[in-house]
Amino acid sequence: MIGEKVALVPYKPEHVPKYHEWMKSPFLQEMTASEPLTLEEEYEMQESWHQDEEKLTFIVTSLPNDDSRSLKDIPETEIKDNTVMIGDVNIFFNDQDQDPTFGEIEVMIAEPDYRRTGRGREALKIIMGYALQVIGLKTFHAKISLKNDPSINLFQSKFGFYEIAVSTVFQEITLEWTLLGPSSTAKVDEYGNEIEAYGSKATPEQHNTVLSVHRDLIAYWNNNVKTGHYA
Question: Is the pTM of this model over 0.85?
C-alpha cells in the first residue's frame, strides 16, 4: 500500500535483521512493552505472525528525509530501492467475543530521524483506511505507554481517539475510536453479565469527531493510496 511519503509492506524474513536491531533499544522496549529476543527468536516470531490470522503486520518504509519526491512520482518497480525501513504498524484482531469489526492498532516509528515528520500519521491513515474500507472494521483500540506522550497526542489530536481506561499496573492508557454510537446495544459476557459496549464512553462531540475523521480516512484511501506488489 503506497501513500505520499510512506509505503506499507508485509513483514518478511528480509526485514528481520533490521527489526532485530531496532528492538535492542531499551527505549523501544519500554514504549512497546517488549522483551529483547535473539535473532533466531525474531525470525520465529516473524514466521508465527505471518501465519497468524489474528495479526495484520506491515513494515513502514519511507523515502529518505532529504528526498522531496512523492512515492506517486516513482515507478512501482523502483520504490523498494528508493525507500528505507523506518518502523511498523499492526492490527490485532483480539476481541474477546471474536467481533470481526474490532481491532487493536499500534504504530512504531523506530528510526529517530523519521519521528515527528508525519510518517507515523500517514502510516495510520493508510492502515485505518484499509481496515475500514477493505476489512470492514468499525472499532479500534490503542494501548499506549503513559510515557509516550507523542503517540497519545497523535491518536487523540489527529484521529479523534478518546480515553476509555488507564492501567497503573501496566502504565498504559487505552484509547478508543469507533463508528458505533454511544447508544449502541450493550454487550454480554459468557456469564450473562452486561459489559460496556464499544462507543458507550464517547461523548456526542467525540462521536462526531470520529465520524468526521472517518470521512477523511475513506477519502484519503480512495484518492491517495495505491496498492501494488513491488515488495
Answer: yes
